[in-house]
Amino acid sequence: MTREQPSRRLAIQLASHGEEIKINRQRADGSWTTPFRLKAALLRTRSRRIRTALNALSAYVRANQPLQNPRDVGWTNYCAILRELQESGQGLYDAIFDGSGPAADLRKAIDALKPDGELLVHIADDDVTLPFGFLFEGQIKAPPESPRRAHFDQFWLSQLRITVVVQNSGTDDERFLCLDPKEFRALYALNRAEFELAVEALDPRETRQLRSLLNIPLKEHYDWSSAREAWDSCVGNVFFVLAHSDGDILSLSDSTLDSGSFSKRFNRPGDGPLTLLILNCCLSIMGAAGGSLLSAVARPGFSGIVGTEAEILNSVALRCGTQLMWNLCANGRTLGEAIDALQQSDDPTVFPLNLFYTCYARREFRLSSPLEGLAS
Question: Are 32 and 12 in contact (CB under 8 A)?
C-alpha cells in the first residue's frame, strides 16, 4: 500500500477587501508576506469565462458519446472549445500575475513548486472562488487530434496538486486525517431518477463496487427527511450527494435545500466528529459570494468539500464518485491520491469531465486500513 509522501507545499491566502481581493503567501518561517490587491470584478469575469468554456466542454461530451463520434469531423468543435479554455485560463493567469513586485515573487514561488508540489489556497466562503486548476501557461494552440489527457498538460491541474481550504472549517483538525475503518460511516443522498439513469451507464464491475459502497452504513437516501434522520442517528464521516445543483440549490427527487438550509440541517457540534462532503453535482463549488455550498463547510463539523467547477453529466459524476470512494475505502488511498488518480485518468468513460473536480479538503485524509467485505 502506498501513502502520499510529504510534498513541497506553498500556502497562499485570498481575502476580500471591498471591491478588491488581497493575495499573499506564507514564508518558510510561517509568517505572511505583504498582500497585493486585485480587482475582484476582473477575477470574477475571468473565472466565469473559464467555467463557461468548461460548460461547453461538458455539452460537447454529452453530444459526442463516445468521444470518437465522427459527427465532429476533424475534431473542429473540440479544438475550438479547448482553445477557448486555454485563452480564458491564460486570461485569469495574466489577471493575477501580470505585474512586478509581490505578484512576480508569488509567481516565482509557485513555479518553484512544479512539478507536483502542493499549492494550498486559504479562502473564506465570501471570497471569489477561482478555478486555479485551469490557469494556463504555455503556447495557445488546439491540435486537430482526438481528445486526450496530454492536451491539458499546460494547465495548473497537471503541474500542481491544488488544495483549497475554507476558513472556519475543521480542515486543520488532526482527528479527521486517519479514521478507524470499524467506525467509518458514509451517507449517500441521491436524486433517485438521476441516480437510476446514471447506474445504467456503469459497467458490471463498477456496479458491484457501487452496491458495496452503498451497503456501508448509513447507506443511501432519496429525500432530505430520510437523510436527516440517518444523519441524526449516527456519526457520518463522508456525506456523498448526487443531486441537481446550481451552486446554491441541492435538489433530490421530492425536495430542495439551499446552501444555508443545508448547513443548518446537517451541522455538527464543533467538538464532534468531522465530515467530508462529496458534492457530485453541477457547479457544486460555485454560487454567489457568501451564499454558496462552500458555506456548508465554513463552520465546525465539516472538514471540507470535493466538488466540481462546472456542469457535469450524471453518469460521469456517479462513475467519478464511485472511483473516488472505492480508492478511499477499498484501495487504502489517501484523499489526495484518490483525487490524483481520478484526474490523471484518460479513460474515455470519464475524461475530460474528471478534470472538473477540486479538492477543498486535506489531502492526507484516509482510513487506517481498507474496509473489509467490499466486493469488487
Answer: no
Q: Which residues pair with 97 in a beta bridge?
A: none
H/E run at residue 109? helix 102-111
CA-wise closest residue to 83 among 28, 122, 141: 141
d(CA 79, CA 88) in angstroms, rounded, equals: 14
How many whole angstroms separate alpha carbon 332 and alpha carbon 329?
A: 6
pTM metric for this prediction? 0.92
- Are 249 and 282 contacting, i.e. CB atoms less than 8 angstroms apart? no
Cα dihedral sign, 138-139-142-144:
negative
The answer to whether 324 and 306 have CB atoms below 8 angstroms apart is yes
Ranges of each domain in the chain: 9-166, 174-367
360, 307 contact by CB (below 8 A): yes
Q: Report the amino acid identity of residue 364.
A: E
Domain 174-367, architecture per CATH: 3-Layer(aba) Sandwich (3.40)
- Report pLDDT digits (tens) over 115-147: 989 999 998 866 668 999 999 999 998 888 889
178-179 and 249-251 beta bridge pairing: unpaired
